């Protein structure tokens, strides 16, 4: 059984989260500059066995795709081409950024620490992954 990697894709930064080998626990992995994302994933997949990529699917309240979907679709095509043997699934990511920010508040992070957008992206990816694990 391989790990699951969740991807909270953004124009500047992308948050990543990963499961353990048994796919029980979701943990934040890192946040990388989106321009370096593919090379990071290539390196990571050489070190770890990845069974599934979960890519956040931003939606409007009426369930229609959000504006950022036009940037995510080309990324998914690249991902499919670079990793043809790894399955890709989409997960609704509505409210994950707000939930990530609330998680930071609830965990007692100071106001200055909560301004760390990279941390918000990583927590968002973790929330995407956790929601998928709950739904399994």
TrEMBL record:
UniProt-listed InterPro entries: RNaseH-like_sf, YqgF, YqgF/RNaseH-like_dom, YqgF/RNaseH-like_dom_sf
Hydrolase among keywords: yes
Main location: cytoplasm
SUPFAM superfamilies reported in the protein's UniProt record: Ribonuclease H-like
Stretches assigned to the YqgF/RNase H-like domain: 2-100
Protein localization: Cytoplasm
Pfam families, alphabetized: RuvX
EC number: 3.1.-.-
GO biological process assignments: rRNA 5'-end processing
Protein keywords: Cytoplasm, Hydrolase, Nuclease, Ribosome biogenesis
GO molecular function, one term: hydrolase activity, acting on ester bonds
UniProt xrefs under PANTHER family: POLYNUCLEOTIDYL TRANSFERASE, RIBONUCLEASE H-LIKE SUPERFAMILY PROTEIN (PTHR33317:SF4)
Role this protein plays: Could be a nuclease involved in processing of the 5'-end of pre-16S rRNA.
Family: Belongs to the YqgF HJR family.
Name of protein: Putative pre-16S rRNA nuclease
